[in-house]
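Key result, reporting period 2: structure in, sequence out.
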């Protein structure tokens, strides 16, 4: 990676477009808990159709297309973490329920992950909504969490939502905060979803996919179903998302994050290289996350510590499962505070990301 220097992306004039911020502010206020995304799909449909896109719904994926749908294919997941009511005054982490990882057969989430999550949302304000319509069903606050020893699952205790029935989603109350350096909020993955909607505002004529249940490991199945229905055999898909780093200083050392591969598959080399070249042309510093993790792992192993996984992504899963039908790569925004209410994306990275999307779509 090149030495970090003040580029056009960091200059004080490099403000994020106000229409994008307005859109992101609107979307972040609309709930989209894992497994209960229907109401958010309705909001997306309206915003996309207002910007001239042709919108079609399928199970687990909303597809927005312009007049040249094969020119560029982009995908973002739209689910965010939250809770689901699972009984009288009982609430569980939605990704565990949606991913069927809360069963009684030992196929449960590790205690380490549970403990991490249990401390992450203490005292967070929440609100309940009807999953189909999005109708507001009341607000409350997370009072505490405990691990149920019988079910080996994480249970949340909430104030003021005793009236809810099982199956009701509960979202974390959120709004977008803009600082001099970053966008802050529950950004994964409403940030890049908003960018794809904004792209249609700029004249995008390709295809954008918005997938459900990525946090439960299911979104790639919905996407693959679409390609099996309609796709040719040389689909080049670019999946956009946020990419976590340990702290904000580390996150802002690069503008964008690319990958050669993940734990599941090797990505399309030509497409990945095209993105890397595009970044270079526009003075955008890009880091390859798989190489970054492998370099860190070499240091960990040298110290006798456990190495980290290079990560599992929607793109890798779909390549591995599609037998060559779907191929592609990823483009990600580096963030810190992953899966919290304070996830932070550097403003320089968001600007570089929007610029790269427009360049790929020949809109610059």
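The corresponding designed sequence is given below.
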């Amino acid at each position: 990676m090149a030495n970090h220097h003040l580029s056009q992306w960091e200059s004080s004039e490099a403000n994020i477009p106000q229409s994008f911020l307005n859109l992101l502010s609107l979307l972040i206020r609309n709930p989209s808990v894992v497994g209960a995304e229907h109401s958010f799909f309705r909001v997306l449909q309206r915003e996309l159709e207002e910007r001239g896109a042709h919108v079609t719904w399928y199970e687990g994926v909303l597809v927005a297309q312009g007049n040249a749908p094969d020119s560029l294919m982009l995908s973002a997941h739209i689910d965010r973490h939250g809770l689901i009511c699972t009984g009288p005054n009982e609430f569980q982490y939605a990704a565990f329920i949606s991913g069927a990882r809360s069963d009684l057969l030992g196929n449960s989430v590790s205690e380490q992950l549970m403990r991490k999550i249990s401390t992450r949302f203490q005292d967070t304000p929440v609100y309940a909504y009807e999953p189909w319509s999005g109708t507001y069903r009341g607000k409350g606050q997370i009072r505490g969490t405990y691990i149920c020893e019988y079910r080996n699952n994480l249970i949340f205790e909430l104030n003021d939502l005793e009236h809810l029935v099982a199956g009701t989603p509960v979202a974390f109350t959120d709004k977008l905060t803009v600082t001099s350096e970053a966008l802050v909020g529950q950004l994964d993955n409403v940030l890049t979803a908003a960018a794809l909607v904004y792209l249609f505002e700029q004249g995008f004529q390709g295809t954008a996919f918005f997938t459900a249940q990525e946090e439960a490991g299911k979104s790639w199945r919905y996407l693959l179903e679409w390609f099996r229905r309609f796709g040719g055999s040389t689909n080049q898909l670019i999946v956009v998302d946020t990419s976590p780093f340990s702290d904000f200083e580390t996150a802002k050392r690069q503008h964008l994050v690319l990958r050669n591969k993940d734990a599941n598959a090797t990505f399309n080399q030509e497409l990945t290289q095209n993105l890397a070249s595009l970044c270079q042309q526009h003075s955008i510093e890009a880091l390859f996350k798989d190489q970054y993790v492998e370099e860190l792992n070499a240091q960990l192993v040298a110290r006798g510590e456990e190495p980290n996984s290079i990560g599992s992504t929607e793109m890798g899963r779909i390549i591995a499962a599609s037998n060559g039908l779907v191929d592609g790569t990823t483009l990600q925004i580096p963030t810190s505070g992953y899966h919290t209410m304070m996830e932070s994306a550097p403003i320089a990275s968001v600007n570089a990301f929007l610029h790269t999307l427009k360049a790929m779509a020949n809109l610059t």
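The longest helix spans residues 289-302. Residues 82-172 form one domain. This case is discussed further under Risks and Mitigation.
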